[in-house]
Design brief:
Immunoglobulin-like
Length: 107
């Protein structure tokens, strides 16, 4: 399973709704695209949030290029760092992972 990808959102405000983008383009072979999303999950890296899954603000989608997963998020707890991880299947059958950390701030 490949795990080297780009995660575009590094922080957000508590009251802000955002779209997390998991960019798989650097690990997809030429001509291969994402075919389905297996899961998107949130865990706490630092701080306290008893329900990190509440960041999820709707269904995740594969973008029009077939190389990125976009996940709407909302809320979060001030000063908590979340680990956000997406798993997807590629058109060649590979299961791919992309992840990164997200800090929630109160600006």
């Amino acid at each position: 399973m490949s795990t080297c990808c780009s995660f575009t959102t590094k922080s957000k405000d508590v009251g802000e709704d955002r779209i997390l983008t998991f960019d798989y383009s650097t690990i997809l072979p030429t001509g291969v695209t994402l075919s389905s999303i297996f899961s998107v999950a949130f865990t706490v890296v630092q701080g306290t949030d008893t329900n990190p899954g509440a960041l999820n603000n709707g269904p995740s989608v594969i973008d029009i290029t077939g190389t990125m997963i976009q996940q709407p998020i909302t809320g979060g707890v001030k000063d908590v760092t979340y680990h956000c991880k997406a798993f997807a299947y590629a058109s060649n059958g590979e299961k791919l992972e992309c992840s990164g950390n997200l800090l929630v701030l109160d600006r």
